Amino acid sequence: MIDSAPKDELLTAAECAARIGLTVRALRVYERHRLLAPKRTEKGWRLYGAAEIARLHEILALKQLGLSLSRIAALLEGRANDLDRALAIQEAALSALRSRAERGYSLVAAARARLRAGDVLSVTELVTLAKEAHMTESSFDAIAQRRYEQARPRKPIEIDPAALEKYVGHYKSEVGFVWDVSLKNDKLYFKNPGWPVANYALPEGEHQFFFPRWPSQVTFGVSPEGAVESLTYHSGGFENVAHRIDAAEAEREAAILAHRIRNKIPNPGSEELLRRVIASLQSGNVDFTQFIDSLSARLQLGFSVVFEELAAKGAVQTLAFRGVGPVGGDVYDVKFENENTEWRIGLAPDGLIRFLFWRSMP
């Protein structure tokens, strides 16, 4: 029988370096940091196959985010190659770069057209143009770095169940919702208004826990005296901090939300705000400072897709308030020229938009 399995092509260090655009010295440095372990011939010559080059790709992706070699080594220690995750990081970074470049190009082109027509740009327009035309990618690199860290495999540790008691309680997020942390069957369970059920997390450190069902974690903030003061939720490359509140405040927050839902009370000004946001997303002239940081970053990362999708819907014909959702967002039926949609907009205590999403309706 003929073996049809593909043979692993092996490259010498010089061939590997030349093809990828590195130096042999760089390969040696990665090897000294125990990031690479190439195969060896009987005479000791190093050989690089598919597995080694996949790991090298992962190293370069993390290095591109600004991580030190020691930090990369800590992230990759004991882990099998994960080329897909490395490619996902690069895909997100390239998508952000393309989206922001397209947005900057459209703004510059529009500004030049107005100047040719004899118009004068306002100070606000010039500031926006300067910011968008000279943007950096450091913040998006940080998001990709955190996403990679949050997605790495995790192992639970043994912890005294009695030590979990101190985490039980209520924590109010900086963007307005309340986390409830409870203890059941020697496990910590977490619940917020956006989750239909509570979900448990396992300990990976003294104050660090991870959710086994998806790549998210919680870190508790503890004072020097040992008092638990906050929790930070790590997910999707972002972090959200919630500060501890007492049971009475948690009950008040729940009562306020229940009252708004029951009586269909929108946040003041949310209708006009939603109209402005939709118009800005369709025109491409968006003030991203009106969103919380994580939402602003998400919109900028995928702006080219958002712009194309909303532009295809046509002009807004009607916009009608329907009620309040389970996490406090105002729900609107928005009829475009070409499509009927449902929108939900949620506001943080400081007035910034904390979430915004839409879906098609019949």
UniProtKB/TrEMBL annotation:
Keyword DNA-binding appears in the UniProt entry: yes
InterPro entries named in the record: DNA-bd_dom_put_sf (IPR009061), MerR-type_HTH_dom (IPR000551), MerR_fam (IPR047057), Peptidase_S12_Pab87-rel_C (IPR021860)
Keywords assigned by UniProt, alphabetized: DNA-binding
UniProt KW DNA-binding keyword: yes
Spans traversing the lipid bilayer: none
Limits of the HTH merR-type domain: 10-78
Pfam name, any one: DUF3471
Protein name as it appears in the record: MerR family transcriptional regulator
Species: Methylocystis iwaonis
